[in-house]
Every structure is written in structure tokens, then in C-alpha cells.
Amino acid sequence: MSVFWKDPDDKTTVILTKSNNEILTLSVGDFITYEGRPEGARIEGFTQKSSDPRGPIGMIYLPWRPLKNCWATKVWTFKGDPRHIIASPVGFIHYGEHLNWDTVFLMNGGLCPISTKLE
Asked: pTM for the whole thing?
């Protein structure tokens, strides 16, 4: 499994290659699901290290709250954004959530639910 930039000059889109060689293009604004987050989440951005042009350190997301029909509130702690998922191989040693990237899928063709409310 690996996550690399689709274009090293564009830090908004990555190519996820899963363990079974399935390739998935993920972009800022896409609506995804993964193990532990069946209700979905929106990709807010990718974190990067300018000294490593291969790929992102991780991905920042915002969860969807289907019962309230809104997005979760953005959060920030002294360690940074707690909704930061580590991308392998570049981000392996950094702070953030670790997940099985093989469980990532686009929901609704990547289109997010429409809501301007935050929880």
C-alpha cells in the first residue's frame, strides 16, 4: 500500500495504490469511507514535508454526522489536528491516526453531502 502525489506540483490530489494493486485517485473535497468511519468523511487537505516530494505525510479529514445532517466541527490541539491520518510511506514516523488504507473507498462517486452546518 502506498500514497503518492499524482503530480508533485499539485498538493491536492494523491494516488492510493492498495495491497491488491487497485488504484484510487483521492482529492481534496472527496467524500470517502474507511474501516472505522462507515458514515463517511470529507478530505480537507494533505499535509506535506517540502523536503520529500514523493507524497504526503498524511490526510486531514472532517467526519460526516448523518443523524444531524451536518459536518463535524473542526478541532485543533497542541499536537495539531487530531483528524490527521498518516500516509505511507512518507508519513510513517509522524503523529496521527493509522488506518488500513485498503479499506478506503469513494462514497457517492466522491460527492459530499450538502450541508453548511457544523456540529
From this structure: 0.89
